[in-house]
Design a protein that fits this description.
Keywords: Antiviral defense, DNA-binding, Endonuclease, Hydrolase, Magnesium, Manganese, Metal-binding, Nuclease. By secondary structure, the protein is of the alpha/beta class. The protein contains 11 helices and 12 strands.
Length: 317
């Protein structure tokens, strides 16, 4: 199966014909994608028209739909509610998850995230700057807040360019501070978040019931948790992009396509070439097993993944 991410970023009418999603834009030929191959549909223009039947058919095939706002952040997300053989037990296990197990699972996520950040710094700049030893010191629940300490060091160094090494700040207000690579990161994280939420639902878990993230206005707290070790995959692509392009320019079709390839690319995992969707599904399944068994060691999030060649993507500018 091919997992495709399709973005519609211009006025278009969407329909389903012969088990395919058909995108019709004025002045251009129709483009069709088999629903069985569609993983994520990104709606990035206010003049995209589609029916409830289209949304239903996408969900029936296991795909997700994300609407994106003007800041490249998710405004809404539609996920498939597909019966899983252990879904009821999984939901109950999430609701009854004890604090000690929750804290141990969060410890494993934070360790994996900091390791991935350190490995990316070493890959790009030749040194992990102490993040790998820091990852090993993360305790249950991360009471020392090493995640935040690692983040401060990581963002200071990731986009370091000579004397400007301290100028980048993650999460700044683009309206006040102007455009920079934050817009690229936000867009990439939006795509990744959709893929992670899809994997969580497929594993029988509920994406709202998080381990650490608990924003009452966030319907996908568990997706925010599970995506943490995978964020450096987006960071790596953003770094490579801004080496040749001005980050202050607004995202165009080429930049978005490059970032979408973060989730459509293939990676080496456990000695095998796998799609990121497969790797995310395995991570979500191991998390579900850990929750049901009460054994945190069942959950094994990966460190930084090595990308294989020949990513696959689809987009319409």
């Amino acid at each position: 199966m091919i997992d495709r991410v399709v973005e519609v970023a211009r006025p278009a009418r969407l329909s389903v014909r012969d088990a395919q999603l058909v995108v019709a834009c004025e002045g251009t030929p129709e483009v069709a994608t088999p629903l069985a191959e569609l993983a994520v549909l990104l709606l990035a223009h206010p003049q995209v028209t589609l029916s409830q039947a289209v949304l239903s058919r996408i969900a029936e095939q296991g795909g997700s739909v994300v609407t994106i706002d003007g800041k490249y952040l998710p405004a809404a997300m539609l996920l498939p509610v597909v019966a899983h053989w252990r879904q009821t037990a999984s939901f109950a296990g999430q609701l009854e998850l004890g604090l000690p197990l929750r804290k141990r699972l969060w410890q494993r996520l934070v360790r994996a995230k900091i390791r991935a950040q350190g490995e990316l710094l070493r890959e790009l700049h030749g040194s992990d700057d102490g993040l790998l030893p820091m990852a090993a010191r993360v305790r249950s629940g991360d009471p020392d807040n090493l995640e935040a300490q690692a983040a401060r060091r990581y963002w200071m160094l990731l986009f370091a360019q000579g004397e400007g090494r301290n100028k980048f700040r993650r999460g700044t207000d683009m309206a006040l501070d102007g455009l920079d690579q934050n817009q690229h990161l936000d867009y990439g994280y939006t795509v990744l978040r959709a893929a992670v939420a899809r994997a969580i639902c497929a594993s029988g878990l509920h994406p709202t019931l998080g381990l650490k993230h608990s924003n009452r206005e966030d319907a996908f707290c568990l997706a925010a948790d599970l995506m943490e070790p995978f964020r450096p995959l987006v960071d790596r692509r953003v770094y490579r992009w801004i080496q040749e392009h001005d980050p202050a320019q607004r995202l165009d079709a080429r930049a978005k396509g490059w970032l979408i390839e973060t989730v459509t690319a293939r990676y080496l995992s456990d000695g095998e070439d796998r799609s990121l969707f497969d790797i995310l599904a395995r991570a979500a399944s191991s998390l579900a097993r850990a929750m049901l068994s009460g054994q945190a060691q069942e959950f094994a999030p990966p460190s930084l993944l090595v990308e294989s060649p020949a990513p696959q993507r689809e987009r319409w500018p």
